[in-house]
């Protein structure tokens, strides 16, 4: 009877896969393969093969094995639940010597005599949380709720408060520095800033189709506030009494590097056919450089200003204003026939003389004559001068009167007939 039990036991061992060349990898082979998949701090305590089956064939055998395994914790294991500064806060999840059991399915193929390639297909076992104590790096860890944890929390809070105090101090110092820079720039920019030359566009002098150049002037009230109002003046560089004034607001940049200027409305300078729009990004720095973008991307208008009133320009503006106040003239330009006059009437006009136009006739001028050039021919004003002129539109006594051409003061007039009406000019006051 004992012999029969022994034979039966042997048969059972053969059924479940007693180690042998034709029965797949051994428990040691499986253990070695499993070890490669385990976290640090774990080891295989035991492997017990339960069933082995060749799922290949005799020529190319592939052994599929189910085993029960036991995993041992060689170190205490901890799970991270937070951190304080650079130190992990953990709770203990396993002690050294604890074990876990589970079921393992592997597949093995022979690699030469007594050598096996083992692949793990599946491991049914409770999850292994956390990591071994040795795996928490140079900063280590503290156990949640421990005295070390409480000490670390207190140190971290102290460091946080110190860092916050330093941050606030640095913030206040930076704010004070910015405020000082803002006040310094604001005080530097107080007053009037006048152009030292004509405005440039991308480094070249800007001019309109009539070759008129423009310059800018900034007027700022006294004060040290970072935000306020002032005025921006656009004027004809060569005829500085021709100007337009644009109200503006300003704000000193937070870093105190420049003043940002914004017009309160779109402002068109009709005399030069130039418009500055509300919202244009205009800046003025402490070197007096006024800058704003042009319509072409990457290009800028610039005008170099210097602190102080341009006395010559102010005198010209004042004198021009006196002429307007005294005589209340109309502004004249273009041909004589376009002036708002009726036959045998006159009016006072203010104009700037030039030598670019056409003159027809002498003394009694044809209506096709350019008024600004006619005053030069008549000898009333020189080229570039400004004055108030009385212009009379006279009806001729005859239907047509011959008006000969002459050269006077560098201007040659054409000979022509003056029919029905002609124009006479007299100087009232020169600027």
UniProtKB/TrEMBL annotation:
Signal peptide start-end: 1-21
Family annotation (InterPro entries): LCCL (IPR004043), LCCL_sf (IPR036609)
UniProt cross-references to SUPFAM superfamilies, sorted A to Z: LCCL domain
Presence of keyword Coiled coil: yes
Domain LCCL intervals: 356-414
A Pfam family per the record: LCCL
Coiled coil feature spans: 146-188
Gene3D superfamilies documented for this protein: LCCL-like domain (2.170.130.20)
Keyword terms, alphabetized: Coiled coil, Signal
UniProt entry tagged with the keyword Signal: yes
Protein name according to UniProt: LCCL domain-containing protein
């Amino acid at each position: 009877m004992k012999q029969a039990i022994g034979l039966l036991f042997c048969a059972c061992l053969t059924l479940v896969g007693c180690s042998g060349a034709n029965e797949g990898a051994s428990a040691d082979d499986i253990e070695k393969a499993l070890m490669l998949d385990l976290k640090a701090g774990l080891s295989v305590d035991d492997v017990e093969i339960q069933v082995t089956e060749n799922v290949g064939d005799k020529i190319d055998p592939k052994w599929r094995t189910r085993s029960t395994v036991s995993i041992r914790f060689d170190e205490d294991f901890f799970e991270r639940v937070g951190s304080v500064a650079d130190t992990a806060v953990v709770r203990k999840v396993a002690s050294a010597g604890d074990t876990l059991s589970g079921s393992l399915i592997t597949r093995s193929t022979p690699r030469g005599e007594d050598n096996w390639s083992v692949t793990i297909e599946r491991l049914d076992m409770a999850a292994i949380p956390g990591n071994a104590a040795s795996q928490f790096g140079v900063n280590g860890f503290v156990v949640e709720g421990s005295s070390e944890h409480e000490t670390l929390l207190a140190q971290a809070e102290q460091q946080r408060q110190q860092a916050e105090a330093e941050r606030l101090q640095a913030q206040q110092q930076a704010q004070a520095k910015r405020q000082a820079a803002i006040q310094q720039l604001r005080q530097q920019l107080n007053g009037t800033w006048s152009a030292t030359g004509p405005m440039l566009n991308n480094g070249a002098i800007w001019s309109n189709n009539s070759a008129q150049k423009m310059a800018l002037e900034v007027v700022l009230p006294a004060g040290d506030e970072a935000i306020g109002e002032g005025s921006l003046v656009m004027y004809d560089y060569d005829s500085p009494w021709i100007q337009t004034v644009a109200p503006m607001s300003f704000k000193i940049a937070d870093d105190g590097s420049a003043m940002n200027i914004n017009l309160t409305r779109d402002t068109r300078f009709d005399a030069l056919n130039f418009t500055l729009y509300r919202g244009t990004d205009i800046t003025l720095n402490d070197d007096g450089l006024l800058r704003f973008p042009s319509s072409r991307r990457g290009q800028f208008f610039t005008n170099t200003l210097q602190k102080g009133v341009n006395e010559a320009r102010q005198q010209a503006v004042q004198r021009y204003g006196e002429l307007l106040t005294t005589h209340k003239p109309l502004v004249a330009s273009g041909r004589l026939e376009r002036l708002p006059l009726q036959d045998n009437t006159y009016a006072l006009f203010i104009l700037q003389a030039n030598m670019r136009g056409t003159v027809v006739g002498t003394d009694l001028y044809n209506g096709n004559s350019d008024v600004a050039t006619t005053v030069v021919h008549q000898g009333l004003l020189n080229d570039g001068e400004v004055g108030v002129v009385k212009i009379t539109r006279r009806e001729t006594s005859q239907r047509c009167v011959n008006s000969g051409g002459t050269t006077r003061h560098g201007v040659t007039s054409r000979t022509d007939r003056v029919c029905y009406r002609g124009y006479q000019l007299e100087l009232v006051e020169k600027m």
